[in-house]
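Figure caption, in words: inputs first, then the predicted bound structure.
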Amino acid sequence: MSVAALEGEKILILDFGSQYTQLIARRLRELQVYCEILPYKASRAQILAAKAAGIILSGGPASVHEKGSPRPDKFVFEAGVPVLGICYGMQLLVELHGGKVVPSKKREYGHADLEIVAESPLFADLPKHLQVWMSHGDSASRLHNGFRVDARTESAPYAAISDEAKRQYGIQFHPEVVHTPLGSKVLENFARRICGFKKVWSMTSLLESQVAAIKAQVGEGKVVCALSGGVDSTVAATLISKAIGSRLHCIYVDTGLGRHGDRERAEKVLGRELKLNLKVVDASKLFLGRLKGVSDPERKRKIIGKSFIEVFDKEAKRIKGVTFLAQGTLYPDVIESVSVHGPSVVIKSHHNVGGLPKKMNLKLVEPLRMLFKDEVRLLGKEMGISPDLLGLHPFPGPGLAIRVLGAVTPELLTTLRDADLVMRQELKAAGWYDKVWQAFVVILPSVRSVGVMGDGRTYENTVVVRSVDSRDGMTADWSRLPFDLLQKISSRIVSEVKGVNRVAYDISSKPPATIEWE
Ligand code: XMP
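Bound structure (xanthosine-5'-monophosphate present):
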């Protein structure tokens, strides 16, 4: 296969199951290097179609000695483009080229001092000693002819290797994690110097190319879009409306399960400021009616999901000639995850508009499907969407229904809304809103406790404040909010919100807890 067959439109990352694979992609994109992730077993045809300027083999939990451990198609090494193996990826490079990988006496995990011992373009413009992050059980113990050692650490004599003639590089450490402070430079050297990748991935060029792509896909057709008022659907809709104007029909379903100001903000920002062709449907009676007396979390979620589809479908059918459905799907949902543990159990049936396409028989327009969340925000900024909207915390599809534990009533929703508003106001006033991933209030109607107010006894509800730090919602830790701030939130809720006499702060991490309580 000739080198010229691969023209170099991106760096291709083959995923061997490391928890850091997405981070490699994010680091490269921060360097304005466009990249995509494919499962390790990508076929020769898929690799060819990717038109990569270079290929990165990610880390992974397997050992190259294990029977059936993941191997790439051998075309990876024949494609004529540079290859960088990281951790497991490096062990593959060694093993598949006749070298030897052995289990380390001790699993190396944590910081290490990397000493660069040979001149390599991978380490150009870097100091001779680097702080790096290691996490591996196997290491190379003998290299095949052609490979040489470029760097070592105290416990890994082959911490970086290369075969310059074949343009193959291996590193035992993880350049993508923050614990390798200069790791981005290593990735940049690979992409720009070694692969010669010139293109600059910018939001301006992305905006132009996406608008053109939507125009080409939709032609003279009409698109319908469910707007939640959140970041992803707003950015997706704004982008599509740039391409096709009022042929984009946006529908905001008011489920009656939103927070204070959610619907008003949608009407103001989406309708009046962003000038989207917006229809607001008030379906709160339907949702609250169907949820009456239902306390099982999964049943609540199912009822909400089904009702949402029903309302949206009915409304969309009123628009003549719609053939496309817009969705704000993001890249992490698209990447086929390489799980060594098989399919995971359903913890919560997430409500998003997932059921819509099948039911409605529409073609999908998903302009954000190659973007990470932070890139969606940058794209939104590029289109002039306000920072306030772009900085909104995630809000679940089933809304406040999964924050009233047990059966939902209008009275409990009012109490929860009032408490939630106080919490958000105080978080913003203290400058903490933008520092945390997500913060909200949960109400525990079945927990009533005794309190004292003035001279009287109270017997009222407890609410819980939950604030978490997270990178992607998959794992999370509780935010270390200042005590003074918690105190202010607590005293304001108890004095201003009717029906609440006790406030607790949730100090559970995910796992084992989840972010939402239901
Ligand atoms: P959990 O509770 O599973 O939440 O730890 C992880 C993240 O997902 C959000 N979440 C949802 N988002 N539909 C959504 O669009 C849902 O049904 C849903 N349930 C949870 C949650 O707020 C957190 O950010």
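DSSP finds 15 helices and 18 strands in the chain.
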